[in-house]
Design brief:
The structure is a single chain. The chain is built from 4 helices and 3 strands. With 87 residues, the chain is of the alpha/beta class. The protein is flat and about 30 Å long. Strands 2-1-3 form a 3-stranded parallel beta sheet. α2 (21-33) links the parallel β1 (14-17) and β2 (38-41). Helices cover 33% and strands 14% of the residues. The protein has one domain (7-80): Response regulator (Rossmann fold, 3-Layer(aba) Sandwich), CATH 3.40.50.
Length: 87
């Protein structure tokens, strides 16, 4: 598991946004088994700090997060909409 803050700048990385630490750990372990680098954060606010304008990774997010949630982000009412592409 990659927890280095610079990882999102240097590598194609999966950013996992999950407020439950057990679920977050399980997601990171599953990706690590496949040699997929990942960084885990506990909130959308933390994710925003790591996502830059040229973010080239993948974001996997819990839908119901405290504070800014993924539903708000996908509707375009929050600041990280510009950084993320939704599918």
């Amino acid at each position: 598991m990659n927890t280095d803050a610079t990882a999102l700048k240097d590598d194609l990385t999966v950013l996992i946004v999950e407020d439950d630490p057990h679920v977050l750990l399980g997601c990171q372990q599953a990706l690590a088994l496949e040699d997929i680098p990942s960084v885990g954060v506990g909130s959308a606010e933390e994710a925003l700090q790591r996502i830059g304008e040229n973010f080239a990774g993948i974001v996997i997010s819990d839908i119901r997060l405290p504070g800014i949630d993924a539903w708000s982000c996908s509707r375009g009412s929050r600041p990280w909409t510009k950084a993320c592409r939704w599918c």
